[in-house]
Amino acid sequence: MKKHPERTDQEQATTNNGNSSGDIPPVADEAIAAANFHRGRLIVDELLRCGVDYFVVSPGSRSTPLTAAVARNPRARSFMALDERAAAFHALGYARARKRAAVLLCTSGSALANYFPAVVEAFNDRVPLIILSADRPPELRGTGANQTMDQVKIFGDFARWWTELPCPDGMMPESSVRGGVAQLEYRSRRPIAGPVQMNCMFREPLLPDYDEAGDVGELFNGQDGAADRGPAFPSTQYIAPLMMPPREAAEPLALLLQGGQRGILVIGRLPDEHALRAVKQLADVLNWPVFADVRSAARRRDLFDHCVDFYDRLLDSPVAASELRPDVILHLGDQLCSKSYMQWTVNYPPQRYIAVKDHPERHDPAHRVTHRLEVDIEQFCRAMALELRPRAAGDWTKTWLRYSEAVNRQLQLTFKDEEQLSEAAVANIVNRRLPQDHALCLASSMPIRYFDMYCADTRARDVTANRGVSGIDGTIATAGGYGAGARCGVSLLIGDLALIHDLNSLLHLGALPQPFIIVLLNNQGGGIFSLLPVATHVDMFETFFGTPHAAQFDGAAAFAGVDYFRVERADEFEDCYRSAVERNRTCLIEVRTNRAENAAQIKQLNARIRAMFAGSRRE
User: Fold this and answer.
1) Does residue 140 surpass a pLDDT of 50?
2) Which of 194, 195, 240, 249 minimizes the C-alpha distance to 361?
3) pLDDT band at residue 542, thresholds of 50, 70 and 90?
């Protein structure tokens, strides 16, 4: 028999039935191809029945049965990403926006390894991801076969769950395949959301020689080929547990909160809009100062009357931090971005620190939590709001708000009088001009810190950032995925090194349905290091930490077919950003800054705020 043109030398020598002669009846190849395609259709169809319909696909051969199943299923929505690292971060952003997994689909070999940075971020930030990795058959493992490596549990403990499907051979019931896929989808979102992997082995030939999707099942075990025409429900329907606050804990906690004279309500990122409304209900009863993280969607004066916008800068002042010591902190949701806040809890720990989260993970780097509740945050807030007696805002709350407004006046005065446009001022302008129907995406390092320290009353639809491990990789891809998931425009504030790290993702912006505005802070290097003590070590700083480069971002924009603008003054930037928003145009706006001058501006601004409170204490 003639050698099959698609089959590798190794697979030609070792067949699915163990025959090493290579003499296979002609029907064998057709049956293998049909079985592969049918397996792909089963997997994709079951994911669709589970409510997962977004597939981020990268090109490759071994994944052909899965890719073809996505391509030929009209209910499957797909996004083609040219490289796997960008694909994984796109899926991460999409899943974070939708609160539901996106599916990553790749070929065998090093393609899968490129998912690792996004998998680590998804694991630490509890973002659901489903990975369908194609693999070579078992007889090729450990043989030196081309594009073959050990893919078994490749992500280790960073995968919440892992499973493997053998090569389709007619022995595995459809119900087993569907049940495994349903479990995969459930494990991606409960009990702690995160990345999960199904490793799918396929032998060649990977796909039937003909194009018609129908009737291929008839070639293998009499299957009817109707994988995507079955019932609308998944094979196994999982009902997640509802974590209600225990009744026996409600009264003691209410007494703790009611007795707090110097209480702080801390709001991290919350699960959804329902939780946010419940938090507001509780905040209106407590009337404590509110510390809302930049990602919480709660830093809004129209929602929280007692939001202390600039708590981070207040706590950076030794005088203010010492004067405003709490006796109880109620912390809802994720950790805060603010380093000053964490240091404050170390220096002036409250008598009671109550952390309420919907997962069991510790999240207590300062080791100050005294009470930890794993409950549904919405249910907890509604229960506590009913248990507590409403109180009026006292002097404690009014002092925080008065001090925060003093910081605001100092900031606005500084930004108004700037001769050289600072990066913090750029963030302030974006915050003021940001459309309420846009998602705001913030790169790690300085962009998220500028917003956290110097911006107030952020009215964006969503604020998002990769804070699981706070890496700079995949930032553009994550923001693009978030926009695709939220189905809205995106404004991304990013530094030059983070953009260089993800240049490939510029090519994907044209496929996004909504406008994508990149505001690039280009200080020709790693700006955050200029604010750290290592900056004083001039013998090594510039080469190993400043990391200057000669990248020309107008060329990068042209490479990706993206409109490009470069501005230098505050009025130029404000006009350019406003125009991009009004015209719904995808573009890259570059703001050139000087690293040393920007660091000096930030240090001077922070010193003025600290001096303002030191002066008030002397008076």
Assistant:
1) yes
2) 194
3) confident
Picking from 523, 192, 496, 505, the residue whose alpha carbon sits closest to that of residue 359 is 192
The answer to whether the CB of 320 falls within 8 A of the CB of 314 is: yes
Are 133 and 198 a contacting pair, CB within 8 Å? yes
- The C-alpha atoms of residue 504 and residue 212 are separated, in whole angstroms, by 34
Q: Compute the average pLDDT of residues 539-564.
A: 91
Give CA–CA dist 604/607, Å, rounded.
5
CB distance 177 to 143 below 8 Å: no
Name residue 519's beta-bridge partners: 493, 589
**CA pair distance 340, 321, nearest whole angstrom:** 9
Helix (H) or strand (E) holding 517: strand 516-522
* Span 572-601, pLDDT tens digits: 999 999 999 999 889 999 999 988 888 999
**∠ CA 263-268-274 to the nearest 5 degrees?**
100
Tell me the three state secondary structure of residue 607. Answer: helix
- Asked if 263 contacts 329 with a C-beta cutoff of 8 angstroms, the reply is yes
Complete DSSP assignment for 262-304: SEEEEE---SSHHHHHHHHHHHHHH---EEE-TTSS---TTT-
Q: Using CA atoms, how far apart are residues 455 and 240, in angstroms rounded to an integer?
A: 38
Give the integer Cα–Cα distance in Å for 491 and 482: 11
Buried b (16+ CB within 10 A) or exposed e, 554-572: eebbeebebebbbbeebee
More confident site: 464 or 214? 464
DSSP count for the chain of H helices, then E strands: 22, 17
Residue labelled with tokens 């001022």:
425
User: d(Cα 35, Cα 26) in Å, to the nearest integer?
Assistant: 15
pLDDT-derived band at 131 (thresholds 50, 70, 90) equals very high
Q: How far apart are CA 148 and CA 159, in angstroms?
A: 21
**Per-position b or e across 360-398, b if 16+ CB within 10 A of its CB:** eeeeeeeebbebebebbbbbbbbbbbebbeeeeeeebbe
Size of the chain in residues:
619
Report the chain's mean pLDDT, rounded to a whole number.
90
Q: Name the band, by pLDDT with cuts 50, 70 and 90, for residue 225.
A: very low
SS3 readout for 426-439: HHHHHHHHCCCCEE
Which residue reads 């899965």 in tokens? 66
Do residues 497 and 545 touch, judged by C-beta distance below 8 A? no
For residues 592 and 566, the answer to whether their CB atoms sit within 8 Å is yes
Domains for the chain: give ranges and CATH numbers. Answer: 9-219 (3.40.50.970), 247-400 (3.40.50.1220), 418-618 (3.40.50.970)
pLDDT in tens, 560-576: 999 999 998 999 999 99
**pLDDT higher than 80, residue 618:** no
Q: How many CB atoms lie within 10 A of CB 146?
A: 12
Q: Is the pLDDT of residue 43 over 70?
A: yes
- Per-residue tokens: 330: 């109620």
Residue 30 has pLDDT above 70, yes or no: yes
In this predicted structure, which of 48-57, 211-220, 368-377, 392-401 has the lowest mean pLDDT?
Answer: 211-220
pLDDT surpasses 80 at 18: no
